[in-house]
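Chain A, query sequence.
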Amino acid sequence: MSRRFALSLAVVTMGLLASSTTTLSQAPEKPGARLETPPPPFSEGIFPCSVCHGEMPPNRVRRQLTDMHTDIVLKHDEQHRWCLDCHDADNRDFLHLANGDRVPFEESYRVCGQCHGEKYRDWQAGVHGRRTGEWNGHKSYLLCPHCHNPHQPRFKALAPKPAPKPPMRPGH
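Chain A, predicted structure.
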C-alpha cells in the first residue's frame, strides 16, 4: 500500500468517524421542537383526567388509592415517588417537569428523560425504543409508555428458549 494511499484512507476514515460521532451525539430535536409520536396509550375512558379531577383539590399525601385507580400498582422507585411527582397537580391533563413546567402527555419522554438521561439519549439517537423514518430526515418515535408501563416500567422476565439447531449441511 502506498504511503499516499494510506494517508488518504486515514483522512477519509477520520472524517467518517467524526461525522458519525457528531450525528449520534446530536439530539434529533431542537429546543422547543416537538418530536412526531403516535398518541399516548391511554387506558379506555381515563383521559382527559380533568373530567374527574377538574374540580377536585389535589391531595399531595402519599397513600394507597382506594376510590379510583386501584388497578395502578406503583413499582417505579415507589419508596420515593408519588403520583404528583410526574402528574401535574393543578391540571391533570398534563405531566410536569421537576422545575414545574407543564408537559403534554405527547411529550412524556421529557419527564422520563429527567431521571433516565442515558436511556433518553439512546432513545433520541434511535438506539433505545423504536424510531421509524429516514436516517437523515423525517423520523417518528414511540413514546416510553408505548413499551413501558410508566407505573411499572421494568419488563417482566422472559423464560429462556432453547438455542436454535444449526441447519443440516448437505452430505452430513
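The helical segments are 3-25, 50-53, 108-115, 117-125, 144-147. The longest helix spans residues 3-25.
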